[in-house]
Fold each of these.
Amino acid sequence: MKTLLAHPVLRLMCLITVLSGCAVTDRVPDRSATPDARWAVLTLENATTTPMAGARAEAVARALLHTLGVKEVVRPPAPARDALFDPAPAADTEAALAWARSAGVRYVLTGTVDEWQYKVGVDGEPAVGLALHIIDVEDGSTVWSGVGARTGWGRDSLAAVAQTLIKSLLAPVVR
């Protein structure tokens, strides 16, 4: 007599159930932002103990916007701060929006990095958690918000996990 797990479909269902616990995302449904507009990505606020996590997430998001079809992504001027410390974009949001208006930017992507680390343990799995917001520069309203968290396997890189998470959040919005 065969066991239940000997059946290929049941094995696949068990695998999907186990893997589904590795990622969680929530986002505003049925909203979109045009990829033909001019975009800017602000350095994400770093709420982690990992230095420069916000700048790393910003670089990934900027590159992903291009792959999702955004034609022009401009970089805001760097704030005049000591490079040893993370910038605090929350304090600079109004200045960034003023710059974006003068630069003809339509959408600004900003947010917060809540987790950016390799977990402690034998496998050292990468873990990323963040919240993203798309702001319409014309009126300052939030067009879209999404939050997500994702972990990888011990052999995965932190950048790959971040890329997968950010893409899963932004892909349905940028169309």
Amino acid sequence: MRYKDLTGKELIDAYKGERLGILGHTDLEINPTNGRIESIVIQDFSMLGLKKGESRAKIKWKDIEVIGDDMIIVKPNTLSD
């Protein structure tokens, strides 16, 4: 699967049932040694796309449970800042 196929999908926390963000409005942490995605970093943006503050969350790639047509369901062990 390519990154462009993931862009625009909503990230949903399966435990809380809440929307975490949209992939494409996030940053990826990539391991420089093996080129694999380590985590998704969710920035805090306003409706106009402006950054609201320094608030952000990080989801480990291994915590992704399902990648569907419209959304990505995550079951984070810890949602860290």
Amino acid sequence: MSDRHDLGMRVRRKVLGDAHVDRAEAAKTAFDEPFQNLITESAWGTVWASDGISPRERSMLTLALLAALGNFEEIPMHIRATANTGASKQDVLEAFQHVAIYAGVPRANHALKLAKQTYAEMERE
């Protein structure tokens, strides 16, 4: 693997946690391995590895973009990641309020619902 892949895997583990990454790696097949390598190198080894903004800010941006674009499936994963990035519940609320104004209340409302469910699960664990 490339240095970028190795860096991406370290950042991915730091943000998402070993358990999540281990599950994702165990589920990887020959079919999706090229895609998994792409996101590990580009998303995690380039974007998330950049020191241009903090992990906290990156979490807020990611959650806002996921909500604004209606990519709700990954919101719980990134809510869980806030435990590692330093983004607070208030930070997440602020991000979703921006989504409401600039991308639509229904998307922000659904994202908040998912965040509430995920935070409740995290508190039970």
Amino acid sequence: MPFLVLLLIAAVVVFLVRRGRIGPPPWIAASHGGFGPGRFGAMSPEFEARKVLATRFANGEISPEEFLERAAALNWTPGVDHRPEPGKKA
């Protein structure tokens, strides 16, 4: 009986991870490069840079011209999401 309970708990955890409801433990995310694009939806360094740039622009810290210049340096077209959709192969 205890074996069946453990098996049920493991099945629920696997189901939730596969559906994206919960992420990996921190030690697994760190072993995969921290913020690399991957199975667990972690963000790449490029995405983080775009997010910081957009935040600085939204806060008025940089001008529109500077924003577009820096976005071009990141090979980024603002308003276009270059990340693959979860569950789809690139």
